[in-house]
Amino acid sequence: MQIDDKMLEKLERLSALKIPDDKREEFKGQLSKIVDFVDVLNELNLDGIEAAVSTVSGGTPLRDDEPRKSDVIDIILQNAPQKQGKSFEVPKIIE
Q: Does the predicted model carry a pTM greater than 0.85?
């Protein structure tokens, strides 16, 4: 498919871009090559091939949604100037 000036103007409006006059021919050539490449993809025989949405057969493996025992909170709270239970204790600033 050949991209002409009319199609290029429509693409400019749709993309909200302004193509400089000295680059218009270059853009038309590049866009024509892109459209030709997509046309080649349309020639592929895909009969009997199911569309794939993942490379993992059977879907995405999921883990059980269970909390894990972790000592990260205790490690972080070692740096707290003051703590209360499993939280940082900060001075009250609003009366």
A: no
